[in-house]
Amino acid sequence: MIEGALVDTAIEILMKGLVDKVDAQVQYVLGFEHEFEAMKSELVILQAYLSDVDRHKEKSKTLEAASAKLRELIYGIDDLVIDCQNRVDYEKMKNSYLSSISLRGLYFRNQIGKKLAEINREIVNMRQTLNIIPPMVSLYKSEELGSSGSGSVRWTSDIFDEYQTVGLTEDTRTLKRWILPCNRSLQLIGIVGMGGLGKTTLAQKIYNDREVCSRFNMKIWVCKSTFDELEIMKSILQQLKKEDHGSDRNVLLKRIHEALSNKKYLIVMDDVWSIDDGWWKRIFEGLPKTEKQSSCIIITSRNEDVVRRMGVEEEQIHRHKLLSEEEGWLLFCKVAFVSSKRKCKDPKLERVGKDILRKCGGLPLAIKTIGGLLSSKPQFLSAWQPISEDLPQILANESKSHDSLLATLQLSYDELPLNLKQCILCFAIYPEDYEIEVDQLANWWVGEGFVYKKGTKIARKMALECLSELINRCLVEAVRKRNYDGRVYSCKMHDMIREMIIRIAKEGSFCSLDDKNANIATIHSRRLGVTNETLLQPLAGNSKLRALLLTKANYIGFTRQVALAQVKSLRVLDLSHIKLEKSSQFCEEDMWRWITSLKRLAYLDLRDVANLTRLPRSIKKLWGLQILVLGECKNLEQLPRSITALPKLIVLDVGNCTSLSYLPRGLSKLSHLQELYGFKIPDATIQNACHLRDLKGLRELRVLQLDVTEKSMIEEDELTVLEQFQQLKMLVINAGDRTEEVFLERLEKLSPPKSLEELYLRNFCGHTTPAWIAPELLDRLQYLCIEDSSVLQHMSDRFRGSDGNKWRIEGLCLKYLPNLEETWEGIKSAMPGLTYVEVSHCNSLKSFTCAVKNMGCWRKPEEENEEPDVVSLMEEHHHCHHKDDMN
């Protein structure tokens, strides 16, 4: 196997982060400036040394042992710095000298002083230990370290569109010749080949082919390499929109049989590794098989023997081939030359590119990954030549094709900037083939400090840009995304890339994994993805855990013993969708007692916790909390006023909390708040409520979602509040189907900021759009979505603009507006810059070039001589086996 870097990524990144964190504010407020300066100096030396050692790939048992100790030391320093920062914020909030000289304040300083002295002694000892190795230190300037960072990276789009496949025409024809004839009751087809060859891509192409789609009534995609029998049955039932509760396999199989009876169905079993436990035989015997059905099952596997044992006949096995040189070059160009319209314009660069391509051996995954790496580099020979020269040596050390591919992938990982290396390691905690919500990833990265605010770009924006880079480099795959601009909502990782990431994560003790690469809880775990099979008892003795996220679980095996675990280093806690029962060992009271003891917590997610009714006043103990997600907690009735005492909060999400009627007064104290979802406009008579006027202090807001309730009222002195949010980029107004004339008049008079780039108006009951939705008032607006109104009939006169004032809108979405009477010509005239239009259930629209009664979209062609892309979104949905994108 490939040997990893001697100095693991975690150490290098943590050290760089610590140097950034130990700033003057912490030093001088606490009075330990000399100790912090000494620490910072030593860290800079160690950072430079380790970077230099890693660059030279020198091996040493001494350094290997020292690295493990150094990792522990640095995590400890990080905890101490966080404690200091939180104490500083606490004293600022109290705004009192007395808080610093209180008994508790003096005790804190005493303990910090002792820890600092001890840590500095350990750092000096560590440096002396490392000096045993022949010195190779080149004291680079700190800004030069990790010079492969994003400074030289050029991006021409946020993410790629779906990668156009190449070389599949003949393969597709062959498989369709087998599938389309209706001459068998149930046909089995196998697609076999090594990892990274494109078996799944071919299966997807067949699955979404229009002729194939019209041939079958039902289509089911099963993508679980572990192939747990119960999980497969539940996945099938979910896609059939049938009840999937329970664990009785016979009952579930009966439901599947009933749902598929008298239906022509297509099932894809993707990436099957083994059938040794008999799961396939039991499921196959339960599927209906009649001559009238002519159904089909497609199986993809790396192991040809597996598909034979599953019943596929020799003549129905398709052996997927490597790409030809011409096909490989076509794919390579689409990835590597995205900035030059996927064409290579330099003959010398083309020669180097084709030389690199030949070394990829026709493997699509290797071609895309190396192409993604090169797309991040300038199109100069000096940037490409080292890759071409290094690749043969790396591949020569790997005798097996599997290891050869991993070596190719390793090269792409090695070229990542430091922050991206840390971010991509997070994928190691997720199960294979797991669809990951982008919001969870972004919040995690912010919570652990892997990304942070840079200039005017907020931390979550930086996190999304990091994910886009990983997608552009073909290391992560987009699954669900918005049609208009490709904004990604969920993603996943190819199993070969995941295999490489898991190996690196193991080497650096990023997380704990068993022999089957499943994430497990141990007393040494630093990050944990919880499934229904995870045993949490070992956490009782864990003081190192930094991130705990529910992945494939809706309950958590906590006992009170585990709840009392000293996981004091926890930064990230995602318990979304967890089921809490009063009679269980871990109820709501236990949960809050445990959570509020986690003083270093930065990200807390309790989305869709059905039985969550309240937040305790003790939530204010979480001084370091930056992100709090409570969306979709339908039984949450009230937030405590103490929530306004969280000085670092940047995201507060209470969207779709239907039992919540208002938010508490004092939200303006959250001066760093950047995203606020689900702000309930309250009844004007409620004294304890936060009113729209009370938000004036939130100068950092980028995203605001306003929810109107039955008793909501906008007062006269609140009409201009929104225009004060000069950094607001996205505004969502859920107008609550309110029809009262007074309320609609107030909504009509709102004054939003000119900074808006995205606007969503939902459940609006006016006959015309509000007058403030006009190009002269919103001249930076790029995307407009209006949906769910049976009353709306026309756009206002101001909406249409004038000759000198036209919309700059590029994306338009109109959904469920049955009485909206507008013409395509009128829309195009008002919005000459439109590139994408999506329409759904707008029966009264006239002369639109796409479907308006169901779901349709229009996309402007990239080239002037191309025809516009007009397609039914139902058909577009067929192009991908995942859920349709969301807005």
Automatic annotation (TrEMBL):
Classification via Pfam families: LRR_14, NB-ARC, Rx_N, WHD_DRP
A single GO cellular-component term on record: membrane
Every NB-ARC domain range: 178-339
Gene Ontology molecular functions: ADP binding; ATP binding
Keywords, ordered alphabetically: ATP-binding, Coiled coil, Leucine-rich repeat, Membrane, Nucleotide-binding, Plant defense, Repeat
Biological process annotations from GO: defense response to other organism; defense response to virus
Compartment list: Membrane
Every Disease resistance R13L4/SHOC-2-like LRR domain range: 562-787
Membrane topology: Peripheral membrane protein
Coiled coil: 46-73
Annotated SUPFAM superfamilies: L domain-like (SSF52058), P-loop containing nucleoside triphosphate hydrolases (SSF52540)
Major localization class: membrane
Family label: Belongs to the disease resistance NB-LRR family.
Protein name, entry field: Disease resistance RPP13-like protein 4
